Amino acid sequence: PPKPPVLVRVKNAKKYFKLKKGIFTKNQQYVKAVDKVSFEIFKGETFGLVGESGSGKSTLGRVVIGLHEADEGEIYFEENEITALNKREFQKVRKEMQIIFQDPSGSLNPRMKVQELISEPFDVYTKMTKKEKEEKVSILLEKVGLGVEKKLSYPHELSGGQRQRVCIARAIALNPKFILADEAVSALDVSVQAQVINLLKDLQKELGLTYLFIAHGLNVVRYISDRVGVMYLGQLVEVAETEELFDHPLHPYSAALLSTNP
Ligand code: ADP
Ligand code: MG
């Protein structure tokens, strides 16, 4: 079958972190977080990323959406090379790429009401009136399965799952094309994980979203992903369709990882 169009293309991406110089280390030390990684993400798919802690998943995700500048390599978003854009040009593209993190309480300002949190992107990127923003917030709350009355709540008054729904509402507020979900459900109870994942799936269909879905929970990744990439020591050692990978991992490291308990 013909391949679907590509939304994100990563070519030979490298990202090193400079370590602080210690008393006993004479030379500058580096951590190789992402080492010559190339892959693509098709429009409309969920690309799962697995690998043990410290293998470079988050760094790769951040390089893809420009939160980290790659040391080497190129990132293309819809055929635009974002690694070649200046700050202002990049801001426009950045709007199309959103991120949802692991710890919802940490990424939501505790002093802001749900309504303000969700309309924050409108304040930054649009000139919508107060009334327009309020209307849009109500629509978004409904989309993510939260009652409209929740708009006056503060983050600490919500459950973990509800807070993650607020994060999702904020992430889709500007109609992005791409969402990086980095351990987005990892901190939630298993039953709540399932609810949030089903919400992400429904929104994907409704809004035509593309996901890069990072998680250390193998079951979750297997359930949501169309294709999965395995990271090991900063390298992407295998990419395959989800069931193919779980049934017949080709790389020895994938085989070892996938045979461990979820
Ligand atoms: P994962 O998400 O798979 O757990 P990370 O991308 O967070 O892995 O980390 C990859 C490697 O890069 C690790 O060795 C980590 O310690 C290092 N690293 C990540 N972020 C930073 C940073 N901001 N400064 C220095 N080292 C970092
Ligand atoms: Mg991580």
TrEMBL record:
Q: Which GO terms describe its biological process?
A: peptide transport; transmembrane transport
Alphabetized GO MF terms:
ATP binding; ATP hydrolysis activity
Give the UniProt keywords, A-Z.
Answer: ATP-binding, Nucleotide-binding, Transport
Q: Where does the ABC transporter domain start and stop, copy by copy?
A: 8-258
Record's family?
Belongs to the ABC transporter superfamily.
User: How is this protein named in the record?
Assistant: ABC transporter ATP-binding protein
Q: Which organism is it from?
A: Planococcus maritimus
Q: Complete protein: which residues are present?
A: 15 to 276 of 347
